[in-house]
Design goal:
eight-stranded mixed beta sheet, alpha/beta, 13 helices
């Protein structure tokens, strides 16, 4: 008889702590800057209600069957046309709809890697992806970002050294090129081109996770990495940030042979054909460009409110790259500060955030935190930053007192 060994998720997958802290604290006055959520008032409830009714009236029996009605085909066509804005040309057979981009990350990882293969990431990066990569038992290696995104020059240096010393090369590289989570930075066009060239030269694939691309406050868009290396890049995006995360609809675009292998691994069959039918109807009702403009106007205002409050309450005690899109602001404190040490105190004061250490592979990032500016209204953001600053200064003062005593 085999007995199950004790297993600690928090030790092997520290991201579980993040989820717990993000949703902990049920006090009525909690302001959740930890949530990577869209604004509640941006969710198209009325139009979604009409789209749902239309799905039942026009495609009811088919939409509720395994293969669905007209929705899945129309969604694929919409993705194909919308992707042209990113300079991506793809056929229907090069596109697969998934249960959110998180499922796409999982499927692509398991398709293109085996346990023990090298998978390279940015530092910091999305902790949900790190969890997926660890579950796939890949060997992870990270590279820093700066205000222009991933340090592709350091990636190239490492590749050269690996070849020189006959060491393993990566099978995959995971990159968030636009309004990076959590850094908020964009990968420059020069680095996109060079990264694609390196993928060809050293025979690895790139997962381009582009969830935030539409949320550009200044309406500037850089061509996707995919456009510079379609044979080496699998492009991912999602409806979560532009319509609603509850749809759980994302997509992947890649070589037909890769997508065909992904379909073999995708044991759940077609992704929620009923939801695709509803989403198809919604897309026919709304002007997507107007939808995006409204989101960007709302989120730009909330980002400005957060920046203004940080300047007022923190002054020069912190630094940050001001994002021009996306969901997040990445706040940097002095090097000796550990933001995880006052997370509980901040929660008690009624504000939550995610400590920087959770976004790194290595033992680093302690003096950072990720703040989300999209979920809360401007006046609430202002109050949250005020509470956060008060908590921080109390932490610094207590730390100084302890050091003086010792």
């Amino acid at each position: 008889m085999h007995l199950l060994k004790p297993f600690s998720f928090s030790k092997r997958f520290p991201e579980t702590e993040v989820v717990g802290s993000a949703f902990a604290g049920k006090q009525d006055d909690l302001i959740p800057l930890s949530f990577g959520f869209p604004a509640p008032e941006s969710l198209p409830v009325d139009k979604m209600t009409a789209a749902t009714e239309a799905a039942m009236i026009t495609q009811g029996r088919q939409a509720l069957a395994y293969s669905g009605g007209t929705g899945p085909k129309n969604i694929i066509n919409w993705i194909k046309e919308r992707s042209k804005l990113r300079e991506i040309e793809a056929t229907e057979k090069e596109i697969i709809v998934t249960a959110g981009s998180s499922q796409a990350i999982d499927l692509i990882t398991r398709t293109l890697t085996d346990p023990g293969d090298e998978l390279w990431v940015e530092a910091p990066t999305f902790f949900g992806a790190l969890k997926t990569f660890r579950l796939a038992e890949t060997k992870l290696f990270s590279f820093p970002i700066d205000e222009y995104g991933l340090r592709v020059d350091l990636v190239e240096q490492e590749l050269v050294e690996r070849v020189k010393n006959n060491l393993p090369l990566p099978k995959l590289m995971y990159v968030i090129p636009n309004y990076q989570n959590p850094g908020g930075v964009n990968l420059s066009i020069e680095r996109r081109k060079r990264l694609a060239e390196l993928a060809y030269e050293y025979n690895f694939f790139i997962i381009e996770d582009d969830a935030y691309v539409e949320l550009s406050f200044d309406k500037t868009y850089i061509p996707a990495i995919y456009s510079f290396g379609p044979e080496r890049v699998v492009y991912l995006s999602t409806f979560s940030k532009i319509i609603a995360p509850g749809l759980r609809l994302g997509w992947a675009i890649g070589l037909q042979e890769i997508i065909e292998k992904v379909k073999i691994l995708k044991t759940d069959g077609f992704t929620s054909v009923y939801v695709q039918e509803v989403t198809k109807n919604l897309l026919e009702q709304i002007d997507m460009d107007e939808q995006i403009n409204n989101l960007n106007s709302l989120y730009h205002s909330r980002k400005n409110a957060m920046v203004s409050a940080i300047q007022q309450y923190f002054g020069e005690n912190v630094s940050y790259h001001e994002p021009h899109g996306g969901f997040f602001l990445w706040l940097t404190f002095p090097a000796h500060i550990d933001t995880s040490e006052f997370a509980d105190a901040a929660m008690a004061a009624g504000v939550s955030y995610i400590a920087g250490k959770h976004f790194f592979l290595e033992d680093e990032g302690y003096n950072h935190m990720r703040l989300c500016f999209t979920f809360c209204k401007e006046e609430i953001i202002h109050e949250a930053i005020k509470r956060l600053a008060n908590t921080y200064y109390e932490y610094v003062n207590s730390k100084q007192i302890i050091e003086e005593v010792n």
